[in-house]
# Entry
Amino acid sequence: MISKNQLKYIRQLEQKKYRRREGCFVAEGTKVVGDLLQRYRPEAVFATADWQAPAGITPQLVTDDELRRISFLQHPQQVLALFPLPTLNSNFSIQELTLALDGVQDPGNLGTIIRIADWFGISTIICSEDTVDAWNPKVVQATMGSIARVNIIYINLPEFLDSLPADFPVYGTFLDGDNIYTQELTREGLIIMGNEGNGISDAVRAKVNRRLLIPDFHQGETADSLNVAIATAITCSEFRRRQ
Amino acid sequence: MISKNQLKYIRQLEQKKYRRREGCFVAEGTKVVGDLLQRYRPEAVFATADWQAPAGITPQLVTDDELRRISFLQHPQQVLALFPLPTLNSNFSIQELTLALDGVQDPGNLGTIIRIADWFGISTIICSEDTVDAWNPKVVQATMGSIARVNIIYINLPEFLDSLPADFPVYGTFLDGDNIYTQELTREGLIIMGNEGNGISDAVRAKVNRRLLIPDFHQGETADSLNVAIATAITCSEFRRRQ
# Structure
């Protein structure tokens, strides 16, 4: 049984300002909720009778119809849970290969990038303040559970880049960069991926000290751009295969 | 001005059976339509007054409101055009690196894969008959115009694989395959990518003679899967960088 107040509370969490105010986000489905439960204590778990709860978790039972009413999915999947927003660590420092996102807007792209980071063992993603919120229900869903294993930090990105030692490797991909397949790539460093339409912003571009190019293999035609998640995957793959 | 018959005709083209019957598909937006116009003669072009028509193209002028009514997009973009379905070449033979899709279901994934093929200079994609239709409006849109430059062929995939010489390299990615980063990769060959949930089907798996693995770089956790478009990008990148 879902109360009116619960319904209203959950629906509001679609919006970033309510997630920030309540310190709480929504996750759905057996895979995503299951992965998050391995790391985080939920604030609440709503599930239909067919959900197999892990040991120690007692869900509030709901009907299929109630689940549909609280769900953000077209096809709700057995369970919806509320988790506390991870605390942002302001004393963050980079000691390994790290991703930074400069204004990525599409929730599906951010979700896919989090999943790529998880696959390639990149434990932290730094996001500019204008990057879409990672605890948006669409992003959480698109991570397929990877959001449980990757730290995500929102920060003033140009200021953060200013705080790095001048010789710290900061990578970005550009049309006039050096071929990523033949360029030397360091084990540590920051890889910056830009906005879907405009790429890396001017303020951030000025801090990139290693300009890379993902070459295309077109025959005599103008090259188009790659989707930002695809470019992230190719770049991370290229860094990791060298190890 | 759009007639009732035109509206009905265009809306029906959302469905594969009508596209097949009419031999026609829908493309939208300046980029996608512009790329297609470089290759194909349109059957019809509907555009608002602000669209800059290329030389030789005279669109049927429509209002913003009319464009909204015929469009499949949330935010219609100046132009919608109808193009003839490309003729399927049944005498197809492989002489270069080619992609094959075995049951890819998501229109966004297929669109992204077509875009990846275009980037990496892969001119042909062979699709199993249960792969989502490439001329679905959502796929066409997700290709960002690449559908104008990549040949897409629907075929009985297991039968086609049977017709290949026994030693022709047929690649697939599997959890127990050989590390793609260190394995020898040929210049010619077929790369098979499977369904989002189930991977490569049994009938097709039996024909794969080079099993590859995209290794993950997790620290001590069960590896999750990669999205099929991401796996395609990493695989194509790895084949092409060796050239």
